[in-house]
Amino acid sequence: MFKRILFAHDATPAAERALPYLEHLARVEEGTVLVLHVYEPAEQYNTMQGYEAMVASLEALSRELVEDAVDYLETAGVAAEGLVRAGAPAAVILQTAMEQNVALIVLGTRGPSNVKDLLLGDVSTEVLRYARCPVLLVP
């Protein structure tokens, strides 16, 4: 049923807690996992000296995070690949899910801390609201 699973890894403790659930689900479903990390460069600083170095550093850290998750999954016997993209996290997650034709999106979530977070569109809330496939949120 879930042969292609997108795991949106945001480098939080919630995402780390989601990994064992993802690993189990992917093994049971004999699915392939696409580990995605989205970083959002601070565009307001793009004219400042060192901006390119900062973006390169974000990219490198993002790749390392994705590689660690892919290694974890492959060690557990799950087929996995990684992808790093820049942009607004919810929009990139949703776009990637459509482009990659995934059957399930997995996210770790801390949950909204107040009503304001819900109204402003917390990433997991936005993905849940607009995804065209099932979404598994792991607290």
- Roughly what percent helix? 40-55%
Which superfamily, in CATH terms, is the homologous superfamily?
HUPs
Strand residues, percent? 15-25%
Q: Tell me, what is the CATH class?
A: Alpha Beta
SSE class: alpha/beta
Characterize the biggest β-sheet: 5 strands, parallel
Taken together, the total number of domains comes to 1
CATH architecture: 3-Layer(aba) Sandwich
Radius of gyration: 15 Å
- N-to-C CA distance: 23 Å
The helix/strand series, from N terminus to C terminus, equals EHEHEHEHHE
Low-confidence stretches are none
Structural overview:
The chain is α/β, with parallel strands linked by helices. It has one domain (4-8, 26-138): HUPs (Rossmann fold). The protein has helices at residues 13-29, 51-75, 89-99, 115-120, 123-130, and strands at residues 4-8, 32-39, 79-86, 104-108, 135-138. A five-stranded parallel sheet has the order 3-2-1-4-5, sandwiched between helices. α1 links the parallel β1 (4-8) and β2. The chain is globular and about 50 Å long. It starts with a strand and ends with a strand.
